[in-house]
UniProtKB/TrEMBL annotation:
Taxonomy, superkingdom: Eukaryota
Keyword Glycosyltransferase: yes
Coiled-coil regions listed in the entry: none
Protein name: UDP-glucose:chalcone 2'-O-glucosyltransferase
UniProt similarity note: Belongs to the UDP-glycosyltransferase family.
Keywords of this entry: Glycosyltransferase, Transferase
Natural source organism: Prunus yedoensis var. nudiflora
InterPro entries: UDP-glycosyltransf_plant, UDP_glucos_trans
One function term, GO molecular function aspect: UDP-glucosyltransferase activity
Length: 392
């Protein structure tokens, strides 16, 4: 009889990363009754998770999945480059992770205890590879974004390390960039995520990609029919660890009871598949000029819409967006009056419950740090703030 094995999951802080890690952990333990998983959670120094988020996932959880909250780390959030904050924050947790893994390995000597089989780390947690190396166990990446984005990271890292090309030079450039994981070339200066055009951000992502190559394998939340070109392009280059498309990893059950909420009641009154839902994630927020451009596109489209609009934190401070006390101050004058009946502007959104509603016909969300979307003939490109007519 084989000995039970244990994996240590290390998601990045934030609801989206935690939820994805928990969902794949549930799938894995369901496939092997000799597998145990410990999920290590890091808490940011500002309030980022809705109250009870972790509890919602631990309720009715398999007894073979346990959670360990790492000690909180105090790190300054004022004046620090946002693209460096997460690096420092996660690196500060290495000692805590080592302590947890040490306790696991100290207790796995008997036949009744599972052996440590490896670490499964989030794409931003590559510094934890050092901890796995210390214990002589393999590291796997759980990549919560798309295979196309993974291929972009690898390509920019290759350009940097092998051809001495700095991707920040694409800023304000009209040059087209050929990326193997993309079917078509892209206008680099206007389409590359802004993080790749920032010196610190580019260096961090390139370093992550470089360290991905040290791991035993990469699990990607995608599937072959969706991203066959990207998956083949990465797997066929001969320079990357084995790639495992493990998606779609979805939790289609809403964890909070939103029955009877004002938002869902409003959706109940809308025709089927008629509403465009705009929601830009837990970090999604825009400046006033960009908000007005989105409002411009929505109003001219004439479509029904539900818009989760949240206020950006001060520029000198790293924090999550918050709800507006009153949306009127940031929206175009009269916008709410002119769109009454066909549109609703809200704050924090019960996203799963909304997406499951019969009235939702389209979803506008974030994609790799740049938002680009079109609504019924209107094109709005951000962050350039150009709202123009399109004949497409």
């Amino acid at each position: 009889m084989k000995k039970a094995a244990e994996l240590v999951f290390i998601p990045s802080p934030g609801v989206g990363h935690l939820v994805s890690a928990v969902e794949i952990a549930k799938l894995l333990v369901a496939r092997d009754d000799q597998l145990f998983i410990t999920v290590l959670t890091m808490k940011l120094p500002f309030d980022c998770m809705p109250k009870g988020t972790v509890d919602a996932y631990t309720d009715s959880m398999s007894q073979r999945i346990k959670f360990v909250d790492l000690p909180e780390e105090a790190i300054e959030t004022w004046g620090i480059n946002p693209n460096l904050f997460l690096k420092f924050f996660i690196e500060n947790h290495k000692a805590h992770v080592k302590d947890v893994v040490t306790k696991l390995t100290e207790s796995d000597q008997s036949d009744s205890k599972p052996r440590l089989a490896g670490l499964v780390i989030d794409l931003f947690c590559t510094s934890m590879i050092d901890v796995a190396d210390e214990f002589g166990v393999p590291t796997y990446i759980f990549f919560t974004s798309s295979a196309g984005f993974l291929g972009l990271m690898f390509h920019l890292q290759t350009l940097h390390d092998e051809q001495n090309k700095d991707c920040t030079e694409f800023k304000d450039s009209d040059a087209e960039l050929v990326v193997p994981s993309f079917v078509n070339p892209l206008p680099a200066g206007s389409v590359l995520p802004g993080v790749f055009l920032d010196q610190h951000g580019a260096a961090e992502f390139i370093n992550h990609a470089r360290r991905f190559r040290e791991t035993k394998g990469i699990l990607v939340n995608t599937f072959m029919d969706l991203e066959s070109h990207a998956l083949h392009s990465i797997s066929d280059d001969g320079k990357t660890p084995p790639l495992y498309p493990v998606g779609p990893i979805l939790n289609l059950k809403s964890d909070d009871n939103h029955e009877g909420s004002e938002i869902l009641k409003w959706l109940d009154d809308q025709p089927p598949l008629s509403v465009v839902f705009l929601c830009f994630g837990s970090m999604g927020s825009f400046g006033e000029d960009q908000v007005k451009e989105i409002a411009c596109a929505l109003e001219h489209s004439g479509l029904r819409f539900l818009w989760s609009l949240r206020q950006a934190p001060p520029k000198v401070m790293i924090a999550f967006p918050s709800d507006y006390a009153d949306h009127k101050g940031v929206l175009p004058e009269g916008f709410l009056d002119r769109t009454v009946g066909i549109g609703k502007v809200i704050g924090w959104a019960p996203q799963v419950a909304i997406l499951a509603h019969r009235a939702i016909g389209g979803f506008v969300s974030i994609a790799g740090g740049i938002q680009r979307w079109r609504v019924s003939g209107m094109v709005c490109r951000l962050p350039h703030g150009q709202c123009t007519r399109s004949n497409n």
